[in-house]
Amino acid sequence: MLQKVYDWVDERLDITPLWRDIADHEVPEHVNPAHHFSAFVYCFGGMTFFVVVIQILSGMFLTMYYVPDIIHAYESVYYLQNEVTHGMIVRGMHHWGASLVIVMMFLHTLRVFFTGSYKKPRELNWVVGVLLFFVILGLGFTGYLLPWDMKAYFATVVGLEIAEAAPVVGDFARVLLAGGDIIGAQTLARFFAIHVFFLPGALLGLLGAHFFMIRKQGISGPL
Amino acid sequence: MHRGKGMKFVGDSRVPAEKEPNIPKDYSEYPGKTEAFWPNFLLREWMVGAVFLIGFLVLTVAHPAPLESIADPTETGYIPLPDWYFLFLYQLLKYEFASGPYTVIGAVVLPGIAFGALLLAPWLDGGRERRPYKRPIGSALMLLGVISIIFLTWESVDQHDWEAAAQQGAIEDEVEVDESAAGYEIYQTQDSCIGCHGGDMQGGAAGPNIFQSDYDTDEVIDIIQNGIGEMPAGQFDGSDEELETLAAFIANDGQDPENGEGGGDEDAEGNEEENTEGNEEEAEGEEENE
Amino acid sequence: MSEKNHRVSRRQFLTYTLTGVGGFMAAGMLAPMVRMALDPALEAAGDSEFVSVGLSEDEVSEEPQRVDFSIELDDGWYSSEQSRSAWVLREGNEILALSPICTHLGCTVNWGTNEENPEEFFCPCHFGRFERDGTNIPGTPPTRPLDVYEVEVRDGMIYLGQINQRG
């Protein structure tokens, strides 16, 4: 049955080469923990991606209950946390996942640096990776404000003051991020848009480039 | 692969009619212990992922995401703290060389240099050598960066007043005060109490909400007579009997203790949950002036 | 030949295990999320509270009278006041509180507004008519009687609860 469905699609779209390309690429011995246990350091990239997937899924489900509005944002988070079945778990996944993705990404960055994997011909992939690092820090910063509780609000106040310290463009950057002179309704709407549309869009694009380059160039050889 | 003239397509599309068989590559033709991504390697990777996921779910169930009370921009006493991964940046701005007139150094120059160097690492360290100990400068700088981030985060965590932080921002239930109680009437005659704690007893300009702490009647009498923290002593103006009525009323969370309905008990329980432990000491005397 | 068969079965075994582990991971991730999304559909409908309409038991007569009252409507994190009305009348020993929503297409019925049938509820939209106890009159558009509120009498005052269908 499944085979027939596959054949039907394959006849029309010729997906076998695509599928074989994904399934058949070789994984060398030196990244395989079954052969050298120290190769577990090579799994941090995959774990980062796994947590990113958790973040995207839990985030999608959280927006079913969340409203980005300073009057109702807090109420809606409180509601989904305390009244909705498993809401506490899903919000917990998003909250702890945010920390874990940073930890995993940090470890992945260290692995790539200390194995010298960023060197020719992989310079571009390193740059894309560092950009991913910035995007994820940006997601952490904008997402922190969304529950609109005391902690969120004052952390954002401090964060925007740091942005203001930049010379020449500081004021401009702060007003641009806050959406006005005060941190309030417009800031929340802006941070929501950045957190939910702009940065995830950038994240997916960069991730696609990251994976494409890994497949094209292969995993860096043993030291 | 067949190319050029004579090639057959599916219908009028550009999908070739000749199909490749869906057969995995034979890895025995590769040297060494290379293995296939699917399913061999991915299975190993996903088993790690599954174990990780179980641990992760246990974490989310054991430690629900924190939620404080709704943001109140007028609250001035709140000590802000960014999420932990920004702590190193936050801590950097505390040092003399990176604050005040030099804020720009702490906020822009130093992080800019660090992250700029990270971004440009392939060109700053252009040598062919990959082993970390064969390129000591690059490795040393990276180690320095990692150690300073860990150190700054550590310092920031160490210097933060976690006890005060645990108390702030807690979600508080509005206490419903029984306005017909004798204690409430006595309170309304005490101008010096109202001056700080407000006419509704829920806190005012200088004093906190009276009901946010959990004292018994004797302790309340003692605090009213002798003061606590910044709260001065001897502010009560009335007979000992009135003092006791008022104290019992406060200890009973704003319900008339004579009234056997037990409404106060429920409130007391609710309060214990909402109040973080150790809240009592400072809460009563916080920012009491004059 | 036999070795080749062996290799294929090992590969298949790995593929099945891989799909199993993948399914487990997907289920572990998605189960709480999907449960959260389905929550409104799975949540048992809560019994709504009874609201006083400011009418005492003695004031209710055989003649239907209209009462307007408001209820607190909780919609997740948002609660609002909504106004409702009911036709309250005495039917034998019972007190009936009829919903004024016509069971045909949801217009509002009124008592005795049709000059030809003064002792009936009348819906102006499609001339639907109901008896005094809310029973729909055959031959008019509505196909079932008017809905009724749950009625409770506390200390002689009328309290109305949720709306239930009849018949």
TrEMBL record, chain A:
<dbReference type="GO" id="GO:0016491">
    <property type="term" value="F:oxidoreductase activity"/>
</dbReference>
<feature type="transmembrane region" description="Helical">
    <location>
        <begin position="192"/>
        <end position="214"/>
    </location>
</feature>
<keyword id="KW-0479">Metal-binding</keyword>
<feature type="transmembrane region" description="Helical">
    <location>
        <begin position="96"/>
        <end position="114"/>
    </location>
</feature>
<keyword id="KW-0408">Iron</keyword>
<keyword id="KW-1133">Transmembrane helix</keyword>
<dbReference type="InterPro" id="IPR027387">
    <property type="entry name" value="Cytb/b6-like_sf"/>
</dbReference>
<dbReference type="GO" id="GO:0009055">
    <property type="term" value="F:electron transfer activity"/>
</dbReference>
<dbReference type="GO" id="GO:0022904">
    <property type="term" value="P:respiratory electron transport chain"/>
</dbReference>
<keyword id="KW-0349">Heme</keyword>
<feature type="transmembrane region" description="Helical">
    <location>
        <begin position="39"/>
        <end position="67"/>
    </location>
</feature>
<feature type="transmembrane region" description="Helical">
    <location>
        <begin position="126"/>
        <end position="146"/>
    </location>
</feature>
<keyword id="KW-0472">Membrane</keyword>
<protein>
    <recommendedName>
        <fullName>Menaquinol:cytochrome c reductase cytochrome b subunit</fullName>
    </recommendedName>
</protein>
<dbReference type="GO" id="GO:0005886">
    <property type="term" value="C:plasma membrane"/>
</dbReference>
UniProtKB/TrEMBL annotation, chain B:
<keyword id="KW-1133">Transmembrane helix</keyword>
<feature type="compositionally biased region" description="Acidic residues">
    <location>
        <begin position="255"/>
        <end position="290"/>
    </location>
</feature>
<feature type="binding site" description="covalent">
    <location>
        <position position="193"/>
    </location>
    <ligand>
        <name>heme c</name>
    </ligand>
</feature>
<keyword id="KW-0408">Iron</keyword>
<keyword id="KW-0812">Transmembrane</keyword>
<comment type="similarity">
    <text>Belongs to the cytochrome b family.</text>
</comment>
<dbReference type="InterPro" id="IPR036909">
    <property type="entry name" value="Cyt_c-like_dom_sf"/>
</dbReference>
<dbReference type="Pfam" id="PF00032">
    <property type="entry name" value="Cytochrom_B_C"/>
</dbReference>
<keyword id="KW-0472">Membrane</keyword>
<keyword id="KW-0813">Transport</keyword>
<comment type="subunit">
    <text>The main subunits of the menaquinol:cytochrome c complex are a Rieske-type iron-sulfur protein (QcrA), a cytochrome b (QcrB) and a cytochrome c (QcrC).</text>
</comment>
<feature type="transmembrane region" description="Helical">
    <location>
        <begin position="46"/>
        <end position="65"/>
    </location>
</feature>
<dbReference type="GO" id="GO:0016491">
    <property type="term" value="F:oxidoreductase activity"/>
</dbReference>
<dbReference type="GO" id="GO:0009055">
    <property type="term" value="F:electron transfer activity"/>
</dbReference>
<feature type="region of interest" description="Disordered">
    <location>
        <begin position="250"/>
        <end position="290"/>
    </location>
</feature>
Automatic annotation (TrEMBL), chain C:
<keyword id="KW-0408">Iron</keyword>
<feature type="domain" description="Rieske">
    <location>
        <begin position="64"/>
        <end position="160"/>
    </location>
</feature>
<keyword id="KW-0560">Oxidoreductase</keyword>
<dbReference type="GO" id="GO:0046872">
    <property type="term" value="F:metal ion binding"/>
</dbReference>
<keyword id="KW-1015">Disulfide bond</keyword>
<dbReference type="GO" id="GO:0004497">
    <property type="term" value="F:monooxygenase activity"/>
</dbReference>
<keyword id="KW-1133">Transmembrane helix</keyword>
<keyword id="KW-0812">Transmembrane</keyword>
<keyword id="KW-0472">Membrane</keyword>
<keyword id="KW-0813">Transport</keyword>
<dbReference type="GO" id="GO:0051537">
    <property type="term" value="F:2 iron, 2 sulfur cluster binding"/>
</dbReference>
<dbReference type="InterPro" id="IPR014349">
    <property type="entry name" value="Rieske_Fe-S_prot"/>
</dbReference>
<dbReference type="InterPro" id="IPR017941">
    <property type="entry name" value="Rieske_2Fe-2S"/>
</dbReference>
<dbReference type="InterPro" id="IPR006311">
    <property type="entry name" value="TAT_signal"/>
</dbReference>
<comment type="similarity">
    <text>Belongs to the Rieske iron-sulfur protein family.</text>
</comment>
